[in-house]
Amino acid sequence: MNIFHYRPQGGFLHRVHPLIKILLLILLSTLNVQGSTLFSALSLLFALSLTATTRVPLVHYTKEMRYFSLIILIVALSRYFTTESIEGAFKTLCMFTSMILFSILLMDSTPVDEAGRAVSLLFVPFGKKVVREVAAITELTLMMIPLFLDTAQTILSARKARGEQFTRHPIRSLASFTDSLLNRMFLDIERLEDALVSRQYSPENQVAVQPILLSQVLILFIVACTALWVYFLA
User: Fold this and answer.
1) Where are the domains of the chain?
2) Above 60 in pLDDT, residue 207?
C-alpha cells in the first residue's frame, strides 16, 4: 500500500464532493503559510484528527513518509539556523506536516478522474472545450504523483536488495538513482500512454460531474468561516 493512492471506502470524506475538498485544501494551505504559529499548530491537530477519524493507514505509509519527514526536518532546521527562532522552526514543522496530511486525505479519498472533473468546474465560464481539456490535464497530472513515488520506491528497493550502499558514494549514487528514475519514468509514461490509447481515452469522453449538494456547500462555508475566525484570532 503506497501513499497518495485512492482507497475506496464509504467514509465521510469519500462522500464529500471533490471540489469542496480541493477548495478547502487551498484555503487551509494558504492560511497556514500566512497564519501564526498557533494557527499552524491547530491546523496540524485538525489534520491529525481527520486522519484518525477517516482511518488513513499512516502505518502502511511509513516508508514513503520517511522522505517527507526528512524534507520537513531539513526545512525546519534551516529556518531555525537562519532566524535562530524555535517558534519559527516549530511553525514550519507544523505547517508542512499539516499540508502533507491534508494532501494525503485528499488523494486517499478522491479518485483522480473525479478530482480532474471537479477542478474543471472552475473553468465552466470559458466553455465546454476548456472544461474537458482542464479535466484531462488535471487527471493525468495527478496520476503522475503516485507513479513517481511508486517508481522511486521500486528502484530504491531493488538497489538495496543488490546490497548497494548509498552512503559510500553519495553523489555517484544520487546521480545513478536520478538517471534510473528518469529512464524508468519515461518507460512508465509510455506504457500509460499506450494504455490510454488502447482504451480510446479522450477528453471528449469525460462523464458528467456529480452535483454539489447543499449540505456540502454548508460544510465548506462552516469550515472556511471557522478557519478564517481562528486565523484572525490566533
Assistant:
1) 12-233
2) no
Cβ distance 147 to 136 under 8 Å? no
Integer CA distances (angstroms), 79 to 11, 85, 101, 131, in order: 37, 8, 21, 40
Helices 86-109 and 62-83, packing angle to 10 deg? 150
Q: What share of the chain is helix, strand, coil (3-state, %, to 5)?
A: 80, 0, 20
8 φ, ψ (degrees, to nearest 5): -65, 120
Distance CA 101, CA 11 (A): 17
What is the value of pTM for the model shown?
A: 0.78
In the predicted structure, residue 22 carries a pLDDT above the cut 80:
yes
Q: Which amino acid is at 44?
A: L
Phi, psi (degrees; rounded to nearest 5) at 207: -80, 170
Q: What's the pLDDT tens digit per position in 163-184?
A: 877 777 778 877 888 888 888 8
Distance CA 133, CA 84 (A): 47
Count helices and strands in the chain by DSSP H and E runs? 9, 0
Element (H, E) at 200: none
The per-residue pLDDT for range 70-111, each reduced to its tens digit, is 888 998 899 888 888 898 899 999 999 999 999 889 888 888
